[in-house]
Hints:
The chain is of the alpha/beta class. It is built from seven helices and seven strands, in the order αβαβαββαβααβαβ. The chain has a single domain, classed as Rossmann fold.
Amino acid sequence: MISRDKASDKGPVKLEYQAILDLIPSGSRVLDLGCGDGDLLSLLVERNNVEGRGIEINEQAIYKCVSRGLSVSQQDIDAGLTEYADKSFDYVILNQSLQQVINLALVLEESMRVGRKVIVGFPNFAYYKARLQMFISGKTPVTPSLPYMWYDTPNLHFLSISDFIEYCGEKKFHIEKTVFLNKNRKVRLFPNLFAQIGIFLLSNGGTS
């Protein structure tokens, strides 16, 4: 058990993380792909009492996860998830990592295979402030959800909320729930224009 004095108990939870916490029932088996320092995974373990595992490629991030008592393995998710059987987890999370993988199709298909449901969260590249920056300056936009300069960004796929909805339709992924966010609140109208982040709860053809 992680001690109660960890960083996740200091101050309010990020709106993005809270949205994901609300999607995952207590006691679920969860695999967090590209879990980073374990901020989200530790919250899920502490507050939702999940049976959580993480996969991360960065060695220093893994050390931080281990210091928090998290079970995390070093792996490149672009190589697939062959060590996990079908439906090994109730939920697989791809939060702020899908746009950074090389083989997006493989990563999503493998996530859908090993998880009963998949949660995907990514920055919306069609957010209106990004559009305005591009239009006015003619340069690659930099926003709070897209904080990188063009020459050092880890993002490989520049997708919008509308792009992802269309992609799910092509792949026959069932969108069970959506949450659209900007910095301080949920966005309910015209999310492709006004949301900075899109969060999707997916299942394979509507099966659970």
